[in-house]
Each structure stands twice: as C-alpha cells, then as structure tokens.
Amino acid sequence: MIYLDNAATTFTKPRQVYEAVVDAMVKNGVNAGRGGYDAAVRANELLFETKERLAALFHIENPERIAFAYNTTHALNMGIKGVLSYGDHVIITSMEHNSVLRPVKECELHKRISYTVLRANDKGEIDMNSLEKAIRPNTKLICMTHSSNVCGTMMDIYKAAEIAHKHNILFMVDAAQSAGAIDIDGSKLDLFAFPGHKGLMGPMGTGGLYVREGLTLQTIIEGGTGSLSESVYQPEMMPDRLESGTLNVPAIVGLGQAAKFLLDTGVETVRRQEEALCSYFEERVRAMPGVTVYGSSNKTAICAINIEGADCVEVAQMLNDNYDIAVRAGLHCAILAHKTLGTEKTGCVRFSFGYFNTISEVDKAVNAVYEISKEL
Hints:
By secondary structure, the chain is α/β, with parallel strands linked by helices.
C-alpha cells in the first residue's frame, strides 16, 4: 500500500516507537503514580520523560503545563470548554475542523456564548485586519487552526497571538496538522492542542493540551489523579487538574520515543522532506487538464484536488482498488473549510505526505491521477 493519508494519522512510524510500546506493556503496564512499587514509579517517570521531550520540542519551559489527552479533539474540548463562561464571545475561522466548531456550538447552547467566524479567502487565508475588527468587549478567546486539515493552508498564528494579547484575549491553536511537522513556539501561545499520532509519529490514542503558566481551566472530567486524594474536589495544579483516571502508559511512552526521534532528526528536516514531496506532487497534477488544486502555497504537506466531472469518493476508491493508494475523500469533518473553498457540495480528494514517503511513491500517485483524469 502507498499510504498518502498522513493528515489523518501516520501509518509508518519510527521503529523505536513500536519497540517502546511493547516494552512498556511488558515492563510498565501499570497505573502510573498510583503506587510506591518499582513498576508504578518507573511508569510515572516514563510519562514525565515524554513531557520533557514534548516541552523541548515545543519550546515550553515547564513540562507540567502539558496535560495528556486522548487526541486533539479531546484536548480542544478541554481548552475551549475550560476557558469559556456564560456570556463570553469567541472568534474562530472558517477553516476550522469540527473539533473546534462543535465544542463552540455546544457552549453556545449551554453557556449562551456568542461566536464570530472569520471568513477566509478561497485559498483558506485569513486577513489579520479582519481578526482585530471582530473583537468585542466580551471576547474571551480566539481559537485558530495552524494548518487546514483540508488543503494545508497555514495561518499566521504568532501575528494572531500578538493581536489577541494586545487586547488581553486568550489565544488557542489547533495544532492537529502542524505539531511535529512545523516548529511551534509554545511560549508565545496561551493554549494549544496537539495529536500524538499525526506529525509527531506516535501511537493513536495520544495527544495533549498545553496551558500557559497562570491559567487555570474549568474541568470537563473529574476523578482520580493520584494526588490530594483526601479532597473531594479536583486539584488546581497542573497537570493533575486535567488528567483524571488511568493514562495510556504504553502509548504515551511510544509518543516519547517519537518525540525523541523528532528532536534528534530535527523538525525542519522533517518539514523540508514532507514539503518537497508535496510540492513535487502538486506541480505535476496542477499541469493536468481538468484537475483543480485547492489552497495556498504556504501550506503543510497536504494537497487537495478534484478531477473535473468525477466524484471525489469514486476517485479515492479507484486509487485504492486499481493502484493500492490510500487517500481521504469527502468533507474531512470540516464543513466550514469546504464552504470556504467552494467544495461543500463536491468534497475533494486529499493527498497528505509523511516523512517516510518516497519520490517513487509520489510518482506512482501522479501517474494514477493522470490515468484516472483521462479515464473519467
């Protein structure tokens, strides 16, 4: 299989990730920090080692400001619902995934918050002047994707953070497509949610939320933390406040090895490799009659296309059945983004490239698109 759906999850991961998961299952598959015996103590140490590596990767001073999550969706819900209170206003963009839109809609329903959607242009780009104009006296949060999961278009999150902080507004980033693929300076952000299983190349079921110093969130889950067990209330301290119940120690240890791989290899090295593959693919399919490519040139390694007269799901099925190429077609859980790009009725075919893909695989994908475009 030629796997070109890395925006959903990385399929090929560094060898040490698999080895670490198995080793942790065998040696440390116990509840971390819930006992004084050696295995429990070591499991807790391994979790902290993962946080130390993630903190180094994201330029975060205090690893304890990272709370583990099941995935980006979980982390985004913790952040959005943890910040917003009754009557607040939040600003999002028209390129957001449903993992941002749906928690905001839920808060609108139950907390009577209001929200503004900043409309991007047809390439998925946001005018930062429109961001400042959208701010209201009760704006509490600006939440923005770093890179579109549909077309890869990147947002200027540091400019947006500067605007937010100028107005004493919290700024949160959805780093689902950028964590591990782009260097992220977490010290400039208030919150950011990230997955372990995409650009970070870790196991599924992992992710996290960074919360800056001095910021305490309302909780969406309460329970056992292994700390302050004498209290009936959730601890205030991080990360315990946001980490209730048994953590997935083996998967998180695997994520720690993935983070080490990225630190050793260099995020910029990974980015250059992935962007080179994506650019190589995009240049060739753009030249094909009847093929439309979406998004801007400032993007992560995602290329969204449609073939004139062809249903996107049918194209993806042909790629699978006839060429053994795995891609994602449809609306990608991001209806706002598809409305922005003009593909809400058609969807599109998304090719997303990873560090372990090869030029030979990309050549085969280019040839497959060409043949399908001639056939349909």
